[in-house]
Amino acid sequence: MTPDAVVRVATAADAAALVELRAVMFEGMGTPAAAIADPVWRRAAHDWFTETVADPRSRIVVAEAEGHVVSCAVGEVTALIPGPTTVTGSVGLISNVATVAEHRGRGLAAACTDDLLRWFVEQTQVRRVDLFATDAGARIYTKRGFTVRGFEAMVLPVPR
């Protein structure tokens, strides 16, 4: 991580920057530009970030460089039915890991991820942390012990 960078917990004042970083993430996932520009999801995401920064089941962290938010990651404790790897019924989820292009390769996303992993270990009861990674981001997670599951995620859009 660059010496001038600081990782900190996000506040409601960071919501606009977090929406922009979410757009960066979608771009990296190959989402069409028209969908990324849609103001409907952007407003909903802004509201979600504004509310969720205060939720004790979530931790949103940002990295600032040169006085600007340039990277982020979101951690959430999600509820599942207890099972062999989820005895407590709680699973950690890391999402929305993104860094603006000009600041990539400086360890900012890794630092945000490390902050979340410490939080999961020290302040939650989760015994497993899940995430979905792009090929470009996977190296960050494999270095931290994440492995690929034996099955792929599936999705079904529900038209409304």
Order of helices and strands: EHHHEEEHEH
The radius of gyration is 16 Å
Q: What spatial form do the alpha-carbon principal axes imply?
A: globular
The largest beta-sheet arranges its strands as: 1-2-3-4-5
Q: Helical amount among residues, as a percent range?
A: 25-40%
Overall pLDDT confidence: 94
Q: What class do helices, strands and sheet pairing give? A: alpha+beta
* SS element count, helices: 5
Distance between the termini: 43 Å
What is the total tally of β strands?
A: 5
Low-confidence runs:
none
For the biggest sheet, the summary is:
5 strands, mixed
What percent strand? 15-25%
Task: Annotate the secondary structure layout.
Layout: E1 6-9, H1 15-28, H2 33-37, H3 39-52, E2 58-65, E3 68-79, E4 90-99, H4 108-123, E5 129-131, H5 138-142
Parallel strand pairs: 4-5
Antiparallel strand pairs: 1-2, 2-3, 3-4
Helix pairs in contact: 1-3
Describe the structure.
Helix content is 34%, strand content 23%. It is an alpha+beta fold and 160 residues long. The longest helix has 16 residues, at 108-123. The chain is globular, with a radius of gyration of 16 Å.
